TrEMBL record, chain A:
Similarity remark: Belongs to the binding-protein-dependent transport system permease family.
GO cellular component: plasma membrane
Residue intervals of the ABC transmembrane type-1 domain: 84-295
Organism of this sequence: Nonomuraea muscovyensis
Identification of the protein by name: Multiple sugar transport system permease protein
Keyword tags: Cell membrane, Membrane, Sugar transport, Transmembrane, Transmembrane helix, Transport
CDD domains noted in UniProt: TM_PBP2
TrEMBL record, chain B:
GO CC annotation terms, alphabetical: plasma membrane
PANTHER family the UniProt entry points to: ABC TRANSPORTER PERMEASE PROTEIN MG189-RELATED-RELATED, SN-GLYCEROL-3-PHOSPHATE TRANSPORT SYSTEM PERMEASE PROTEIN UGPE
Gene3D superfamilies (alphabetical): MetI-like
Localisation per UniProt entry: Cell membrane
Coiled-coil parts of chain: none
SUPFAM superfamilies xrefs: MetI-like
Recorded topology in the membrane: Multi-pass membrane protein
InterPro entries hit by this protein: MetI-like, MetI-like_sf
Protein name according to UniProt: Multiple sugar transport system permease protein
Membrane-spanning intervals of the chain: 66-88, 97-121, 133-151, 172-195, 228-251
This protein's UniProt keywords: Cell membrane, Membrane, Sugar transport, Transmembrane, Transmembrane helix, Transport
KW Manganese (keyword) present: no
């Protein structure tokens, strides 16, 4: 069997040790900028954030070690608890409808259809528009004589001060955020749906499963991986959301939209309390990591894949 | 059934695009009370455009944003491309450590390291400079990871045969690696350009000098200035939205590929 013999022959080692040396040299050269970059801009800052969170530091002089003081202060800080609550409400309220609506649009969009290519491109437009530009448009939409009030006026609802009423401002941000991210989730879910094996659905149809049953029993479980991905990026993204609250409401009225990143920024760069800001950053990081892990645990539980 | 589904779907998408249309309508609004109408007046828009480009700092913000976004996107492609390729295809000392750091960094976000990153840049003397805005974002863990994943699928035999032909490692990277990595590199270019075009928080922190403000910071100031009418502000928003939308349509295939990466089981 000459063919097998040829295939079985080990791959040619190009000049042995010389090749290894050349590879190590080229590899180090190509990776060196990355090594320096990640050390200077991520490893050192991360270590710095951990350290600063145990200090008091106002940019003048040196950080002063205060142990757990920052974390203890956080427990009694109504501003922190308010922004933690605002962030939690904002996250849940914007993630759930984005994913539910996203799925509702993705399911028909993933099926063959003449217009679907165009619709997929159109649905992405909000996601591709700069957040700053969309925030400005939405602040006009939510203004007193804006589009939002014109639209609810059509169904006979009194105009509302969207951005200046405590009970409403956060919901205005939720509406805008959901709108902004919906297209992104639609596209990811559409790709996931199109990747599902069609044989399973054909078999289910033969067994007499209706569309709702097939969706609940087959589509959702098979789509678990994609759903998890969307859920994680949605939650982590919502927890870091800064721009809408900064541009539309500046955290007001009365702190009703003061999300945690805004509070962190104001603490660090408004009041120059860098140590306390770092402690808030640590809490935010731990919360994001914990939530991601919980999501993996819940959605992967019982998954054999 | 199918026609109904198509009609319903089109309707939903049209409603989603209403705020985009509102941006057009608002950009032609003549005064501050003209907010709820959805009429579009092209001549008003033209008026606003010439005001926007003829006076004030808008052209400067636009230029700064271009420098920032292109700078970050180009550097990201070059350096994350090189590192991702090296991690996937070459054996070198420290490879494991670098990969571990990259994967660890994936779960960090700029907001978490905001304060110490600012201190590093301050230490380097880069406050109020373009390098202070660009260099901290010139690479990303996501970028290195994306290129590495993509480079893993480049067949080793291809590189090996180039080696047999006597080509040097860097030559192989440039002539064989880079062309094969092009889809990943374009994805990265696009996503980084868009991310920087939208970056408000970091420039807000490191650029105090208004001459350096990119669009997000500049626009957030325009919005609070009272002599700027809603029409003018919306026109500014409209112009700001053009480059990302054009890029997205040109590179849509890559944009979608970048978005769906990791979300769909291969």
């Amino acid at each position: 069997m000459t063919l097998t013999a040829r295939l079985d022959r080990p791959a040619p080692r190009v000049s042995g040790r010389g090749q290894r040396w050349a590879e190590a040299r080229a590899g180090s050269l190509l990776a060196l900028p990355a090594a320096i970059y990640f050390l200077v801009f991520w490893v050192v800052p991360f270590a710095g954030a951990v350290y600063l969170s145990f200090t008091s530091y106002d940019l003048a002089g040196l950080p002063e070690w205060t142990g757990l003081d920052n974390y203890r202060r956080m427990l009694d800080d109504p501003g922190f608890w308010n922004s933690a609550e605002v962030t939690a409400v904002f996250t849940v309220a914007s993630v759930v409808p984005s994913i539910v609506l996203g799925l509702a649009i993705a399911v028909p969009l993933s099926k063959p259809g003449r217009l679907n290519g165009v619709l997929r491109a159109l649905v992405l437009i909000p996601a591709a528009m700069p957040l700053v530009a969309t925030s400005m448009v939405w602040s006009a939409i939510f203004a007193d004589h804006g589009l939002a009030n014109t639209l609810i006026g059509l169904v006979g609802i009194e105009p509302k001060p969207w951005l200046t009423e405590e009970g409403l401002a956060l919901w205005a941000l939720v509406i805008m955020t959901t709108w902004k991210h919906l297209g992104l989730f639609v596209i990811i879910l559409t790709a996931g749906l199109q990747g599902l094996p069609s044989e399973v659905f054909e078999a289910a149809a033969l067994d007499g499963a209706g569309p709702i049953r097939a969706f609940a029993r087959i589509t959702l479980p098979l789509l678990r991986r994609t759903l998890l991905f969307v859920l994680v990026i949605a939650v982590v993204g919502a927890m870091q959301s800064f721009v809408p609250a900064f541009l539309l409401t500046k955290g007001g009225p009365a702190g009703a939209t003061e999300v945690l990143p805004l509070y962190l920024w104001a603490t660090g760069f408004g009041f120059e309390r860098m140590g306390y800001a770092s402690a808030i950053a640590m809490v935010l990081l731990v919360a994001m990591l914990a939530l991601s892990l919980v999501q993996f645990g819940v959605l992967k539980g019982g998954d054999d894949g | 059934m199918r026609a109904l589904r198509g009609t319903l779907l089109s309707l939903v998408v049209l409603v989603m695009l209403l705020p985009v249309y509102a941006m057009f309508a608002l950009s032609s609004a003549s005064d501050a009370t003209d907010l709820g109408g959805l009429t579009f007046d092209a001549s008003q828009l033209g008026e606003h455009l010439s005001q926007l480009f003829g006076q004030g700092d808008f052209p400067l913000y636009l230029r700064n944003s271009m420098i920032l976004s292109l700078g970050v996107a180009v550097l990201e492609v070059v350096f994350s491309g090189a590192a991702g390729y090296a991690l996937a295809q070459l054996t070198f000392p420290g490879r494991r450590v670098l990969f571990t750091v990259v994967v660890g960094t994936l779960s960090l976000s700029p907001i978490v390291v905001l304060v110490p990153m600012y201190l590093v840049v301050k230490q380097l003397g880069w406050i109020d400079s373009f390098q202070g805005m660009i260099v901290p974002f010139m690479m990303s863990a996501f970028g290195v990871f994306l290129v590495r994943q993509f480079a893993l699928s480049v067949p080793r035999e291809l590189l090996l045969s180039a080696r047999v032909d006597g080509a040097g490692e860097l030559h192989i990277f440039l002539r064989v690696g880079v062309p094969l990595l092009r889809p990943a590199l374009l994805t990265l270019f696009l996503l980084q350009f868009l991310a920087q075009w939208d970056n408000l928080l970091w420039p807000l922190v490191v650029a105090n000098d208004p001459r350096l403000w990119p669009l997000p910071v500049g626009l957030s100031q325009l919005q609070t200035e009272y002599d700027f009418s809603i029409g003018l502000v919306s026109t500014a928003a409209l112009v700001t939205a053009v480059p990302p939308l054009v890029l997205m349509f040109v590179l849509q295939r890559y944009y979608v590929a970048g978005l769906t990466l990791g979300g769909v089981k291969k």
